[in-house]
Amino acid sequence: MDVERHPFAPFLPSAAKILFLGTFPAKPHRWSMRFYYPNFANDFWRIMGLVFSGDPARFELRPAPDGKNRWDEEAIRAFCAEKELAFSDTAEEIRRLKGNASDAALEVVRPRDVECLLARLPQCRTIAATGGKAADVLAGLYGVEAPAAGQSTRMATGGGREIAFWRMPSTSRAYPLPLERKAAPYRALFLASGFRREDLSAPRTGR
Hints:
Blueprint: E1 4-5, E2 18-22, H1 44-53, E3 60-61, E4 70-71, H2 73-83, E5 85-89, E6 91-96, E7 106-111, H3 114-119, E8 126-130, H4 132-142, E9 151-156, E10 162-168, H5 179-192
Parallel strand pairs: 2-5, 2-8, 8-10
Antiparallel strand pairs: 1-6, 3-4, 6-7, 9-10
């Protein structure tokens, strides 16, 4: 099986306080942009739209110039820079054991050097692992137990920095949870990381 190297450079605003770490992107034919969580079927950017503006379609291009539904990469990058959110993944190199993007079928050949990422993020005090596989890889790197989904634990980095390690619900459509229920732990993450309640949208009810 071929080894794939991560196709995206880390996105690291220097003042970022939160670093989001997934596992690895889907295959390129599923991308709708060249940025993290590029698959249009993935709910990550719908969750961001819901949490910050109450609109899960905030970052969607419908239809894009080519007639396909796509993410608005320019708007997403601007949003992440404005909110000072950093992004990378826990795997630098992987093998796809079944040829797809399922976490269960990914073999991590070489993990990302998270310490190197944190060295470029001096104000970062929170890492959010977006899914079980990412949380397990991160926990293995630091010799800690991964928290339960939607929960956090404390850990120390190699440089002695104390980090809040959050395990977030997977944003994959394969994880069958209503969007608002997926979004609730993300809203809690932002509040715990210093975002003001008035900067976030109110949670939806009755869904």
